[in-house]
Write a structure and sequence with these properties.
Largest sheet: 2 strands, parallel
Number of strands: 2
Shape: elongated
Distance between the termini: 65 Å
Order of helices and strands: HHHHHHEHHE
Helix content: 55-70%
Strand content: 5-15%
Strand order of the largest sheet: 1-2
Structural class: mainly alpha
Length: 176
């Protein structure tokens, strides 16, 4: 019977359940768990697996250049950064309000690190997000003009909840 269950789980692509099946069935035998409890735990494992996969996918699609987070940001070494204000932004209310954030300051003050930390926080909280260096984004836009795919590119960009554009101050714009 277990082999049949494993085959069905594989056919249904329930990988989280399949990974936990043996452990949970053994636990059910030793603890005399009711069938509803076993089913609940299997479903919970599947949900966890899918959440983890979804986060991994969002992180990969975001193309973060560094694996920074707000927890690893060195606030003590950047006295000009208001840690309380940044931690307030970590609540991500600005996303729901569709507000822009702009970090302005001299090089080396942590603007990119903070922005990446907030972007990562958004990804962890289920938002779709993408990191771009400004020059790379404009190169894509210019290329889309040449192959007439601008509307597709803009539609793709519009599907993101958060779009981080870094190094905008270093950009040389063309008339287009």
């Amino acid at each position: 019977m277990r082999e049949d269950i494993e085959k069905l789980l594989a056919q249904l692509h329930f990988k989280g359940m399949a990974q936990s099946l043996e452990r949970l069935l053994a636990q059910a035998d030793t603890e005399a768990l009711p069938a509803t409890e076993v089913l609940y735990r299997l479903l919970l494992e599947e949900w966890r697996y899918r959440q983890e996969r979804s986060l991994a996918y969002r992180l990969a699609q975001a193309k973060l250049p560094w694996q920074w987070s707000l927890e690893t940001f060195p606030f003590a070494r950047q006295p000009g950064v208001n840690a309380a204000q940044i931690k307030g932004l970590a609540g991500l209310d600005f996303i729901a309000r569709a507000e822009n954030l702009v970090f302005i300051g001299p090089p080396g003050t942590g603007k990119s690190g903070l922005a990446i930390g907030l972007l990562r926080q958004a990804l962890v909280n289920g938002y779709r997000a993408r990191f771009y260096k400004a020059q790379d984004l404009f190169d894509e836009l210019y290329a889309s003009l040449a192959d007439r795919s601008t509307s597709r590119l803009l539609n793709r960009l519009a599907r993101y909840d958060v779009l981080q554009i870094d190094e905008l101050g270093y950009l040389t714009l063309k008339p287009e």
